[in-house]
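Q: Here's a chain of 327 amino acids. Please give me its 3D structure as tokens.
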Amino acid sequence: MTLSRRQILAVGASLPLAAPSLALAQAKEFRLGIITPVGHSWNKAALALGEKLKAATNGRLTMTVFHSGQLGNESAMMQQLQSGALDMGFIQAAELGSRVPHLAAINAPYLVRSTPAVAKFVRHPEVVKLFDVLPSETGTIGLGWGITGMRAIFSSRDLQSLADIKGMKLRINPTPVYRDFYQLLGAAPTPIPTPQVYDAMANGQVDGLEADLEFSWNQRFDKVSKVILQMNAVFMPFAALVSGRVWQTLPAADKEIITRMVKETLDTQIDSLAGDEPNLIENFKKAPIPIRQVAVADTEAVIAEFDKIWMPKAPVIASLRKLGASI
């Protein structure tokens, strides 16, 4: 069949106009909030995600990262995610767990006992499935977990074992799971804003800090400590969240791109942090203070007591323990 000149012009004219107008209609700049400072591994991941989205969509989808709590604390950012005022956030499990006990299960002590195990654990489908409650409970969509390493206690007094934690004034993350765990060990959780912790340890306001190794090395808490006790008990992941209100406005193709880019970004963040931890430990070993490990046999009693409190609130802990033991 031979097309007339008018038909050829009509077909030719329709093609270049349709695609650009569609792309223009779907162009979006996402806003992502995060509490950690520039240079932190979570921030690097957020910036990398923006670069991936831009590259994968030829600049149609872009992202601005608001670091260091520029949009408020995590509670404020959750409210913004719920309303759709904020598109995305990297939000700690502590914040989610304070709202939804089911999510707090990921912070239960001794699910796994090493950072390499954490790296496998958070990518398991059963752990990713924890996000299923988020849309109804928080109005957000969870796309994956990122991690910190296992947390340690930096103490201004000597610690040989779990028993020595009793009576310590200990600065911890105020999540209910951590509070209950350390109170079971006899510590007195002491809330102090993060920027004040170093001086509080130096002047004796607190006896120690519970934190991950990356943060502690950046802040050099070893300089105000007599010992580092590697608890190998808990870790603090973050969830890559999207506002449910924003998510429902996106085309299926964009949802697929975002989901894929988030997974690639988190995989890199997890592998990088787990891979860098041995170097961090070597750095701490050069400090003139000992690094000690908690004996596995000493942990069974506190696990049993913790589970009496938390199993009724978050029954999923039981299956997570089984999963962690298999990793």
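Q: Can you summarize the key feature?
A: The radius of gyration is 23 Å.
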